[in-house]
From TrEMBL:
Residues 96-294 form the 3-octaprenyl-4-hydroxybenzoate carboxy-lyase-like Rift-related domain. Its EC number is 4.1.1.61. It comes from Brevibacillus panacihumi. NCBIfam families: UbiD family decarboxylase. The lineage of its organism: Bacteria, Bacillati, Bacillota, Bacilli, Bacillales. Keywords: Aromatic hydrocarbons catabolism, Detoxification. This is Phenolic acid decarboxylase. Residues 301-421 form the 3-octaprenyl-4-hydroxybenzoate carboxy-lyase-like C-terminal domain. PANTHER family: 3-OCTAPRENYL-4-HYDROXYBENZOATE CARBOXY-LYASE-RELATED, FERULIC ACID DECARBOXYLASE 1. Belongs to the UbiD family. GO terms for biological process: response to toxic substance; ubiquinone biosynthetic process. GO terms for cellular component: cytosol. Residues 11-87 form the 3-octaprenyl-4-hydroxybenzoate carboxy-lyase-like N-terminal domain. InterPro entries: UbiD, UbiD-like_C, UbiD-like_N, UbiD_Rift_dom.
């Protein structure tokens, strides 16, 4: 069995490799759970056995380093983007199983749905409007093509069986608006507690009509097993921990937010779409999974799929592109570092323009030669310091669409910058020759100390 076959097999792998912290002390849903998780960010996953008076444990931080996502794929960190790109290009159809094989069907609740009574849903940040689902796959189906769409949305508990949902203008929103214009609700399934690869697949940048669960199957190297929901026409991972079945109500909007988002600022309060939950299914002794917003897990989950998309976009313009990195300091959204093998003058600037065109979120782009380690920010800063001159190497674009969650923009409109830190092809050889100490790589300090 693969180490990331299910959430439970992955947690066992983390436990065996001493990267799962088990917290026996009772913790509060309000801030304390998020605070402890944040203290462990990038070091260990946090498994809370006693959350207030709930019988359900909570886990967070299950993949908070690039290396852990590589381990889930059973490859090395430098191969992650290639593997992800291949999975997006060659999705693997899911395998349908019956209720008797699907552990998520071990318990079925159809009556008296009370989300906060049943589930330990946390409050993460000081000014958050309430309890939020932050790590749930949100699955809807196109009634025409029968293809599903999978994404993750912030979901605020606003009533016993109601959630306020932030739906950005992408695939789920498109299907919802189609249904709403016909006066219909859009059925949905909200899936809590899946393996890291299925989570990662949900964030893939794909054309409309691609089922991200099939990308998850390609990442795993075998079809993802799915089962049909009880009350809605949606297929969900058969070994998920918890599934909420519901519908997005037509012509209903209710206040949602504020909520602490990935830029480490709050998304504002406004009227949003509303989900009504009609049924819950779950495994015996289910595990609730949450992501602390703006933590490493949150940032990397969005950053790695964006890197795959960015690499393909730049390659169409600059075939010599070697690698890309959406940095943590740029929230894995706003800053892109690009490595290229430059064969022609001007390719550095072309790479900048291609990167900016890939996503409106991208705000600053740094392009370097392939001798610079783009995952080492000290190296990147060194390249800016010693290979960049603003007069010839700076690209500035004003009045461009950016992220509305970036508080420095004017309602999402702002400026973009590109730094071409590539060496001029006609430079004198010694001018940019990096210093090197012979024998350095072969030195073992234990032989000397």
């Amino acid at each position: 069995m693969r180490r990331a076959q299910t959430l439970r097999t992955w947690l066992e792998y983390l436990r065996q490799t001493e990267r799962l912290a088990t917290i026996e002390k009772q913790v509060s849903l309000q801030y304390e759970l998020a605070a402890v998780t944040k203290k462990l960010d990038g070091v260990k996953a946090a498994f809370f056995k006693q959350v207030e008076d709930y019988s359900i444990p909570v886990v967070s931080g299950i993949c908070s380093t690039r290396e852990q996502f590589a381990e889930a794929m059973e490859t090395d960190p430098y191969d992650v983007i290639r593997r992800f790109t291949e999975a997006v290009a060659s999705p693997l159809p899911c395998k349908q199983v019956g209720n008797d094989e699907a552990l998520v069907k071990e318990n079925i609740i159809r009556e008296d749905i009370d989300l906060m009574r049943l589930l330990p849903i946390p409050v993460h940040h000081e000014k958050d409007a309430g309890n939020y689902l932050t790590a749930a796959l949100f699955i809807v189906r196109d009634p025409v093509t029968r293809k599903q769409n999978v994404s993750i949305h912030r979901l605020q508990v606003t009533g016993k069986n109601r959630l306020g949902a932030l739906l950005l203008p992408r695939h789920t929103y498109h299907l919802y608006k189609q249904a709403e214009s016909a006066g219909r609700a859009l059925e949905c399934a909200i899936v809590i507690g899946v393996d890291p690869l299925t989570l990662l697949a949900s964030q893939a940048s794909t054309p409309f009509g691609v089922d991200e669960l099939e990308i998850a199957g390609a990442l795993r190297g075998e079809p993802l097993e799915v089962v049909r929901c009880e009350t809605v026409d949606i297929d969900v991972p058969a070994f998920a921990e918890i599934v909420l079945e519901g519908k997005i109500l037509p012509h209903v909007r209710e206040p949602e937010g504020p909520f602490g988002e990935f830029p480490k600022y709050y998304g504002p309060r406004s009227d949003k779409e509303v989900v009504e939950i009609m049924a819950i299914t779950h495994r015996h002794q289910p595990i609730f999974y949450t992501i602390v917003p703006a933590g490493y897990e949150h940032l990397l989950l969005g950053g790695i799929p964006r890197e795959a998309s960015l690499l393909q976009s730049i390659k169409q313009t600059v075939p010599g592109v070697k690698a890309v990195h959406m940095s943590l300091g740029g929230t894995c959204r706003y800053h892109a570092i690009v490595s290229i093998l430059k064969r022609n003058e001007g390719e550095g600037k072309n790479a900048i323009l291609a990167a900016l065109a890939n996503s409106f979120d991208i705000k600053h782009v740094v392009v370097v030669d392939e001798d610079v380690d783009i995952f080492n920010m000290e190296e990147v800063e060194w390249a800016i310091a010693t290979r960049f001159q603003a007069e010839r190497d700076l690209v500035v674009v004003h009045g461009a669409q950016g992220s509305k969650l970036d508080p420095s923009t004017d309602e999402g409109v702002g400026s973009k910058l590109g730094f071409d830190c590539t060496i001029p092809l006609d430079s004198e050889p010694m001018r940019y020759l990096r210093i090197k100490i012979p024998q350095y790589d072969g030195i073992n300090l234990e032989d000397y100390l």
